[in-house]
Each structure stands twice: as C-alpha cells, then as structure tokens.
Amino acid sequence: MHMRELSVTGAWEITPRQIADDRGVFHEAFTDPAFRRMTGHRFDLAQVNVSVSGEGVLRGLHFADVPPGQAKYVMCPSGTVFDVVVDVRLGSPTFGEWSGVILDSREQRAIYIPEGLAHGFLALEPQSTVMYLCSEGWRPGAEHVVDALDPHIAIDWPSVALDGTAITTVMSEKDRDAPSLLDVAAAGRLPRWEDCAAHVERLREATARVDEEWRPAPA
Fold this sequence. Notes:
Blueprint lengths: L1 E4 L6 E4 L3 E3 L2 E3 L5 H8 L7 E7 L4 E7 L7 E7 L1 E8 L10 E7 L5 E4 L3 E7 L4 E7 L8 E3 L27 H4 L4 H6 L6 H22 L5
Antiparallel strand pairs: 1-2, 2-10, 3-4, 5-12, 6-11, 6-13, 7-10, 7-12, 8-9, 8-11
C-alpha cells in the first residue's frame, strides 16, 4: 500500500497493491496499521455511505463543524470520479488550496480527508459508485456547503468525460446555490486550524492510551 500526502496538509492519497490471478483481482482497501502510520491515530468508523452518480454529477463541497468534524476515507469501487479536497480551515498554511485525485475501479485508489476539510467529486462516467468510511455520522445543523465552482478556489474540474464527450454538469439545488468560501468565512462557519490540530492530537493521545492498555505485561 503506497501513501502520498497531498498538497493540502493532512489529506492523503492511498494506492493499494492489487493481486491478480485467473479468478480476478484482490486488494486491501483499508488496513489499520497503514492508516496509523499515515496519520498517527486510529480511524473510528461510525458510518459507511454509498452514492451512485451519473456522468457529470458534481457533489460538494461539503464539510462539518469541528469538533467533532467528520473524517472521510473515500473510495470508488465502480466507475470513475475526479475527487477533490479543499482546505477551509481558517489559519491553515494551505487555506483555500485544493487537491484533486482520480478515483476509479482500475487503480482502486482512496483518499483520506481529515476533519475540517471540504470534499466533493465529479463523476466521469455513468454509475460511478463512491463509498465513504466516515468517522462520525450525519449531524443536522453541523454540515455545511461551499460553492464547488467558486472562482476564488478555482478548482480545475474536468470538462470531458471518460468517453471523450463534453460534460454537462448536474448538481443538487443545495450545492448549486451554495455560498462562496469568502461568504462562509464571513458568516463564521469555517473550522479553525487550531481546533482541527487539537482534535487530531486528541485522537493520537487516545490511540496511544488504547495501545498502552492492550500492551501485554512483561513476562
């Protein structure tokens, strides 16, 4: 399993090692040891979401209040999407920056999105299926959206689908009418860098405590 930190601090691309034989292909989509090496803490799974999108569907940009936030480990087991993470943490050294990764059923890459970052994706072929492992469940009133087409963020969304045809973007009414990053900041709804950093440190301390409790006593 190969792990690469993206330009947005704390976000990672994960590429699994695939094993092929005459039956098909096998890979480990997630392992606790690899995740701990990457982040320094456990991933506490609270919910698994699955979305199926037609070609041109654009979902996002979504983020949650911190604490507790909602970290996501995102995969695309079928189809192809251009997956994007945006740093919306006020005070972050990479605030306002974005990173994009192609997730598809061929490479089976995943992307890890820690608490405090916004996430979205564009489906590049029909029936693109995205699976999200979430550290927290959905919390009414704590979920927010930023305009995925905000010119200040300037995400370079693909204009051509996987089959070479021009993409006609399809968005929900909520996503289409989302405010800009600057408007969300002015409304006081963006997470703060220091709160996100403190949350990650608490996760690491909790992981260390659990590891210590389970460590066998010396013979």
